[in-house]
Structure formats: structure tokens, C-alpha cells
Amino acid sequence: MANSAVSTESLGGEKKVAFKGKKLRVALVGCGGVSDLHFRSFANMPDVEVVAGVDINPDRLAWVQEKHGIKKVYKDWKVMLKEVKPDAVDVCTPNGVHAPACIDASNFGCHVLTEKPMAMTPLECQRMIDAAAKAKKKLVVGFQYRYHPNTQIIKRAMDAGTIGNVMFVKCQALRRRGIPNWGVFGRKELQGGGPMIDIGVHVIEMAHYFMGSPKPIAASGNTWTYMGNKPSKVASMWPNWDYKTYTIEDLAIGQVRFANGAILQIEASFVAHIEKDVWNFSFMGTKGGGQWDPPMICTDRGDSMINSTPAYVGTYTTFPALLLPFTVRFPARAWPVVFRSSSPRLTVVFPVNVLMPVRVSRPVPSLASVPAPVPMALLIVVLPAPPTVRPYAPPIAAGPLSVRFPASELMRVAAASVMLPP
Predict the structure, then answer these.
(1) What's the pLDDT at 376?
(2) At 155, which CATH number?
(3) pLDDT of 88-139, one tens digit each?
(4) In whole angstroms, how large is the CA radius of gyration of the chain?
(5) Which among 234, 255, 365, 395 counts the fewest CB atoms within 10 Å?
(6) Do 137 and 154 fall within a single domain?
(7) Does residue 421 form part of some domain?
(8) Could you tell me if 160 and 304 lie in one domain?
(9) CA separation, residue 177 to residues 46, 118, 194, 352 (Å)
(10) pLDDT tens digit string along 189-242?
(11) What is the pTM of this model?
(12) Residue 383 contacts residue 405 (beta carbons within 8 Å)
């Protein structure tokens, strides 16, 4: 009887229904690195059509046309707004251009989605809000972590009264060594700030959302620059950043006090002398406490102190299902550190110097999108295991290895923090 039972996995797929209504016509302003994720995400939305791309760099416009098939490209978003008349505009520019692009889009009657952070100053943010309100259109900032399963788990506990009144929240967005070596991340005049405005805002926003979005009434903090503005020979995932134009902070520490008496602290750094990267927040309430990763609720129950963790968290991935068979080829002497198979999935742990020579028989989003140098010490890839693959121990010397994977399987990639192989 058990063998004939239907597993929950077989029922877990979402039924796809063809969209027959009017599509939302979206234009992207700013076609740099982050826009690729936006283009690919919109491609998976049957009710959305990307109708134009805007960038001051002709090479990026050519990339938009070649990779994403967008026919209409422009150097000036005002010209695009007049000619294309999109329903919505997605702003993926450097931070210093968020406000003017968003305000112009709202004035043209468009809904607006902008990458985080919202803008450079509170005044710019207010002008963006005012423009959207006047146009009676939506304005959304890309703080997607509030939708993360971890956030939703502890938010539901908060809304159910399990936590009580939140008194204190500690947020951490810390990298051991992770100064971006591309774009304008190190230039304050274009970016507005460093790790606080780049990665700290994500943790602050999801923590503030979890708290119930109380009103801030006071804030204090400090910043330090001690490494980014100097050359460094230390091996890291993103070496050779432009220290000569580096004007942002390396470390920012802040505290926010809210009208309900709660306090939120934030630590954000690109170059913290710590054991490993940290992306988390913890909280203390009158009835319970806990943390975001791994999600945990700490309460008293039945005269005992109980730490509760969910049996099921959910998935959080932007990678689409792979619809065609593909082959991953490992060159000689570059096999994975760990290569093991157990039904139904194959786990491969790559050392930092392996992914670049890895070749696939067709574009695979997770591998094809990894820039050089690989931005992590290790990349863990979990794949459906072909029935012909047997467990392997890392060979001392071996020839090339090719592994072919079946169609309609999902590749899940966890670009985890530093993880050492067993």
C-alpha cells in the first residue's frame, strides 16, 4: 500500500495556466548587472511584457537586445516614456539616479518599482512618494526579503501573539571580506553610502516589517573606513576593488528607537574581522524571542523553556525549471571536492577555482550567471541525480567527467556563505 501511495512531492508543482488578459507593459531603466535578474524574473511572469530598456552605455543596450530580445532600447528614459508609454517602469540604476528616474516615470503616469535603497536622502524619498501619490500610481521598493519563508514564519508567530511586544531587535549584515569590485559601489557621490545602504537596508526592512512597522522617533550611529580605501593583497572573493575612488564606510553601526519603546540595532560591514559572513536578525519580546536564520521561536510552554523550529520552511529561488536535458563537464584535475549521490538528488560542492572551467551543454542560469572571479569560497549545487551516477570519492588524478541530467528537473543553487568540505 505504501508503494502505491502518492507522495507530496508529486502534487507540489504549481499548475501553469496560460494568461489571456492584457499584459502589464514594463520598461527597465538601468541595464547593469542586477537588471539581468529582473529581466529573467519578468520572463517567468505570463502577465508581464518587457517593452523597452534604457541605459547610457551602448554595450549594455546591445546586451539587452541580444540576450533578452528587447527590441526597443534608449539612452534617455524621457524619450522612452514619450514613445513607448509603458504601464510600469523598473529602475535598476545606481542609487543616485533612483529619484529622478522614478519621479519622471510617475509624472508620466507609470507604476514604479525601484531597486533598493529607495534613494540617496529622505528628501528624495519624499519627492518620489509625492510624485506617485499625485499620479495615483504605485511606488514599490525592492525589499524582497519580507517575502522570504523565514520572515513569513516568524511574522506569523508575531501576528498570532506568540512573541508579545517586541522590545529589542539586533540586525546583522556582515561580510568577512566582500567589497564589490564592479560598478560604483565604492563611490559615495553615486551610491549614497556603503554596506549600510547596500546590504544593511535589507535586514533592517525585513526586521521592521516583522515588528509591525513601528514609527521611528530617534536614531544614532557611527561609521568607520579603515580598509576599503587602501590596496590589499589579501585573498578574497572580490579582490582588486577600486580603492582610489573608495569614499564609503567599511563598517556602520546604528540604533533606532521607536514610538512604542522598541529598539533596533544594526551592524553592517563589507570588511568585518569575523569568523564568517552573517545575514540575520534576532529579537526579544515579552512572551518570546528568536531569530531569522535558521528560523526559531523561543518561548515558555508547559513550565519548560522551548525552542521551536519549523518542520517545513518553504522554498525561495528565482531559478526556473530546466526544461531540457543538460550536461555538466568537469575538466581533468578539477573535479568537485565532494561529489556524492543519494536518491533523488546529487550534491556537488565546488572549490573556488573550479566553476570557471566548468562547461555545460546549454545555458544554465545558476552557472552561466556566476561572474569571474567566483563571488564565494564555495558554491553548493543540488541537482536531480541521474540513475547512472554512483557515489564518488574525490580522485587524486582523473580525466574529464561528464554528467547528464534529465529534462524537467529543477536545479536549486544555494550560494551559501563560506562552507568547508568534510
Answers:
(1) 28
(2) 3.30.360.10
(3) 999 999 999 999 999 999 999 999 999 999 999 999 999 999 999 999 999 9
(4) 23
(5) 234
(6) no
(7) no
(8) yes
(9) 39, 25, 14, 15
(10) 999 999 999 999 999 999 999 999 999 999 999 999 999 999 999 998 889 999
(11) 0.71
(12) yes
For residue 338, give the C-alpha cell: 565532494
Rounded to the nearest 10°, the torsion over CA 234, 237, 239, 244 is -110
User: Average pLDDT of 296-316?
Assistant: 90
151 and 265 share a domain?
yes
> Domain check: are 254 and 384 in the same one?
no
- Whether the bond between 373 and the residue before it is cis, its omega within 30 degrees of 0, is yes
C-alpha cell at 103: 519621479
Least confident of 89-98, 371-380, 398-407: 371-380
The CATH number assigned to the domain holding 49 equals: 3.40.50.720
pLDDT at 381: 39
Given a contact cutoff of 8 angstroms between Cβ atoms, the answer to whether 211 and 257 are in contact is no
Shared domain check, 347 and 237: no
Extract long-range pairs of 41-46: CB within 8 Å, 24+ residues apart. Answer: 41/318, 42/90, 43/68, 44/320, 46/16, 46/18, 46/19
Q: Which of 99, 127, 142 is the last residue of a domain?
A: 142
Q: What residues make up the domain containing 191? A: 146-308
| Counted domains in the chain | 3
The predicted model gives 364-379 an average pLDDT of 32
> Which of 249, 279, 308 corresponds to the end of one domain?
308
Q: Give the pLDDT score at 315.
A: 64
